[in-house]
Amino acid sequence: MLQTVQKAAQVLRLFTPRQPEWGVTEVAAALAIPKSGAHALLRTLAAEGLLQRTPNGRYRLGWSLFELSQTLLDSSALLRAARPVMERLVAGWGETTHLAVLVDGQVLYVEKLQGDRALEIVLSGVGKRLPAHCSGVGKVLLAHQPWETVLQIVQRTGLVSFTPNTIRTVEQLREELERVRQQGFAYDQEEVMVGLCCAAAPIYDESGQVIAAMSLSVPAYRFYPNRQRLTTAIVDAARRVSEELGYYQEAWPWENGKQSRSRSSELATSAPT
Amino acid sequence: MLQTVQKAAQVLRLFTPRQPEWGVTEVAAALAIPKSGAHALLRTLAAEGLLQRTPNGRYRLGWSLFELSQTLLDSSALLRAARPVMERLVAGWGETTHLAVLVDGQVLYVEKLQGDRALEIVLSGVGKRLPAHCSGVGKVLLAHQPWETVLQIVQRTGLVSFTPNTIRTVEQLREELERVRQQGFAYDQEEVMVGLCCAAAPIYDESGQVIAAMSLSVPAYRFYPNRQRLTTAIVDAARRVSEELGYYQEAWPWENGKQSRSRSSELATSAPT
DNA sequence: GCGGTGGTTCGTGCATTCTGAACGGCGTCC
DNA sequence: GGACGCCGTTCAGAATGCACGAACCACCGC
C-alpha cells in the first residue's frame, strides 16, 4: 500500500458538494498532516489535473475527473446491461428504479430512472451517497460483504436513524442481513423516509460476486398490497442483468429445491393490474 | 512534486474508452516501471476506490471517480453560469453549442447542447477529448496560454491533420493564436471536419484567466453568410458567462477605443433572420 | 502600519518506496 | 492431458524520495 497515494485519495475524498473548495491549511488539519505535506499533495494533484487551483490559491476538483468518469460510464458493462432492464421496469411499473454500488462502505447511486407515477425522491440522486444500513440496495450490498467488513463500516459511520423504522442495533442488522442473504432480496419498509418503501435485489458479475444492487421504490400505500409482485419483478430484473454480465447459476437462492434452469420469466416486469 | 502521486495519476490516465481495462504487466510496460511498482500502484488505487479489480486480476476505473465527477459538476460555477446562456443560444439559433476546457494540452468538452437545426457532430461529445489546434474552442484556449506551453503541447502531440484546412505548421499556429488573442474570438473553418465551421470565444474567471471556451457550431453553408452575427452572438454569450463568474473589464479586447461599459446587448443571442 | 492568517519554500534525516528475482495460479498450445 | 509460458502477486535489501518543522511572503483586516 503506497501511503502517499492513499493520502492523495483521502485528499480527493475531502471534496464534497457541501465543501467543494479546500485550502492547504484546512486539508492539513483534516488529515492531521503538516501544512507542507498537504501543500505538496494539493500541488501535485493540481498539476495532474485531478484538482484545479483557484486564483486565490485554494483548490477544487479538476476536469480530469470528469473525463475519467465519462470513460468509466462509457465502458461500464454494468450500466450497459442494467439500463435497458431498468427502462422496462420503469415503463411497466411507473415507479422509480435505482442502481447502486458500494463505495467505501456507503451506497453510491449510479443510475436512477424516475417513473411517471413516482414521487420525487430527493435523498437519492445519481452520484449521491447514503449510509448502507437503511436502504434496500444498501442492505443487499452489505449482506454480501464479509461480516467483519460490515462491522468495520458500522463502527466507522454508526447507524444513523432516519425514521422510526431505521435499523438501530448491530444485532438487528446482523439478523436482517442474514435474512436478505438467504432470501436473495431486501425490503426497505419506510426505513429511510416515512411513506417510502422499496424492494431491492443483488446483481452478480461473472465470477459470482455481488457488484451492485437494483431497487424499485414505491410509496408505502402502493408497496404493501403489491409486495409479492414487486419482489418478483426486481429479483427477476436483477437476475436478467446478472446473466447479461455473464453470471449463470444452477439454482438461484429462492429457487432452492426446484431445479428450474429456465431463463427469467417475461411476466415479472409487467405492471400490476 | 510527489512522484508517487504523479505516477498514480499517470496510471489513471491510461484508462480510456479504447482500452478501459489494464493488467499489471501492461501498466508496467506503458509507464516503463517494474512490475512490482505497477502492482503497488494499481492495488493502492483499487483499495481507495479509484480503480476496481476485475475477478481475473485486471483493473478498471472505479466508482469513486463517478462520485467525484458528480461533485465537480454540482459545484462548478462555470457550468452553472454557462448552461442557461448556452440554452438561450441554442434556442435562438437552433445550432449546437459546446463548452470546453483545456486538460493536459487537449480540449475536453464538458457540455454540449444540440440544436434542432443542427447536424449531428460525432467527434465532439461530453467527456471526449480532441487536439486543441484544430477546433475553435481549442484555438481560443491555446491563445491564452503562454507560447512555451503551446510549444510543449505541440511537440508532444504533434499537429494532427483532419482536413485540408487543419493548421499544419507551428508558424501558422503562432500567427493564428496571435490573431485569436487580438480579436477575442476564433473560427474553425472546416478545420476538423469538412462542411463544419464554428465560432468560439473565451470565458474568463474573476481573476481574468481564461478557464474555458464556448462555441457555436454551424454547417459551412450557413456559417459563411452569417459569420458576423455568429461572432457577435458567441462573443457576447461568453462575455455574459464571464461576468456571471465575476469578471468585469473596462474595455473588452474588441472594444478598444470605445468606452462602452454597457452590459451585453440583448440583441446578440437572437436568431438570424 | 501592524498583526494575523494562509499559501509557499527549503534542507535534512529517516522511512518508504523502488527494484529485481522468485512464487504460484491459470490458460493454452502442443 | 501434460507441460509450457504468461501474468498477477510476494518478498527482502538498498537508496531515494518523502515527511517534517521552521522560516518566508503575500494578503487582509484592524
Distance between the termini of chain A: 55 Å
Shape of chain A: globular
Class by alpha and beta content of chain A = alpha+beta
Order of helices and strands of chain A: HHHEEHHEEEHHHEEEH
Q: Give the overall average pLDDT of chain A.
A: 90
Largest interface, C-beta within 8 A: A-B, 54 and 55 residues
User: Rg of chain A to the nearest angstrom?
Assistant: 21 Å
Q: Total helix count of chain A?
A: 9
Low-confidence stretches of chain A: 250-273
Number of extended strands of chain A: 8
The proportion of strand residues of chain A reads 15-25%
> Major sheet of chain A: order of its strands?
5-4-3-8-7-6
**Percentage of helical residues of chain A?**
40-55%
- What's the story with the biggest beta sheet of chain A? 6 strands, antiparallel
From the structure provided, what is the oligomeric state, counting identical versus distinct chains? Answer: homodimer
What does this protein look like?
Two copies of one chain form a homodimer. The first copy, chain A, is α+β, with helices and mostly antiparallel strands and 273 residues long. Chain A is 44% helix and 18% strand. In chain A, the strands form two sheets. Chain A has a six-stranded antiparallel beta sheet with strand order 5-4-3-8-7-6, sandwiched between helices. In chain A, strands 1-2 form a two-stranded antiparallel sheet. In chain A, helix 2 (24-31) packs across helix 3 (35-47). Chain A starts with a helix and ends in a 29-residue tail after the last helix. Residues 250-273 of chain A have low confidence and may be disordered. Chain A binds a DNA duplex (30 and 30 nucleotides) through helix 2 and helix 3.
